[in-house]
Design goal:
The protein has 5 helices and 7 strands, in the order αβαββββαβαβα. By secondary structure, it is an alpha/beta fold. β3 and β4 form a beta hairpin.
Length: 135
């Protein structure tokens, strides 16, 4: 696996699974942070389909994001990970990285991603890791 600095330096587009329009929610706060740090961010949440939240365009599912995604950042509970990885595998152009936030762990989902040559960063906050490296 590449180092985190290599992942960040080679990634431009991030899809935030479980994005919230509530600014107090971590998915919103971190999505806005990433967007403010030169990443193009798309929110994925069926409730927010078609909305733009702080200039982050939202889609109902990963499959409907019409752009190449570099990192899929997941803000869903662990039991949803395998389903999300399966959705990633259905994409015509797959992201290079799946990233799960603190406490979001599922060894079967991780194994599935790695078996399909997708890098997997688990149980780490993408914002915290970016700040450690770049601020």
């Amino acid at each position: 696996m590449r180092s985190l600095i290599e992942i960040f330096n080679n990634s431009k587009v991030i899809a935030v699974i479980g994005f919230s329009e509530n600014p107090a929610r971590p998915s919103n706060r971190i999505g806005r942070y990433l967007a403010g740090n030169s990443f193009t961010v798309y929110g994925v949440n069926p409730v927010l389909k078609g909305k733009s939240v702080d200039d982050i365009i939202c889609y109902d599912s990963l499959i409907n994001v019409p752009f190449k995604i570099d990192i899929v950042n997941i803000f869903r509970r662990s039991e949803f990970l395998t389903g999300i990885v399966n959705e990633v595998l259905m994409l015509k152009v797959r992201p290079s990285v799946i990233w799960t936030q603190y406490g979001v762990i599922d060894s079967a989902a991780k194994d599935l991603a790695l078996k399909n040559n997708i890098e997997y960063v688990e149980n780490k906050c993408i914002m915290t890791e970016h700040q450690k490296l770049f601020l």
